[in-house]
Amino acid sequence: MDGLEVRPARPTERAAVDALHEREWGGPYVVAHDTRHDVRTLPTLVAVDGDTVVAGALTYHVDGDGLEVVSLVAAVPGTGAGTALLAAATSIAAEAGLARVWLITSNDNLRALRFYQRRGMRLVHVDRGAVDRARHLKPEIPLVGEDGIPLHDELVLERRTAVEG
């Protein structure tokens, strides 16, 4: 997709963003670090193509010295929407004086690990059993994830901004 524009989501794009979250997460709730996030209530960036079609969405939360990416979803992987959204979130963090951009993924999500590490993020922590605990907040989380990998742990990745925190 040429000519992607990244900007804050508009109210008229809510349905398209919700549809992406429904497809990726089964609804508007994401559980990470023992917290149930309603992505509809979080600041949201969208990547839109020249036709104003939502190509991806990123929701985030600012806390302490960092910007946490709560959800990053591309309508079609490999189009550059995810990369553009992550770059925009990193710029927002730096402009706000935040020292890092960070996120959580699950131990089975090899595609996400590849994506984030190729974009400068580093693995900084493993929370053993976090996904097992998350099932208390979101019982529909499967026991086995992508590639047949048992789903148990959360992996924390971060990228430091130019701001020292």
Automatic annotation (TrEMBL):
Superkingdom in the source lineage: Bacteria
Molecular functions (GO terms): acyltransferase activity, transferring groups other than amino-acyl groups
Gene3D superfamilies per record: 3.40.630.30
PROSITE patterns on file: GNAT
Annotated keywords: Acyltransferase, Transferase
Domain N-acetyltransferase: 4-144
Keyword Ribonucleoprotein appears in the UniProt entry: no
Transmembrane annotation, as ranges: none
Descriptive protein name: Acetyltransferase (GNAT) family protein
Record organism: Micromonospora taraxaci
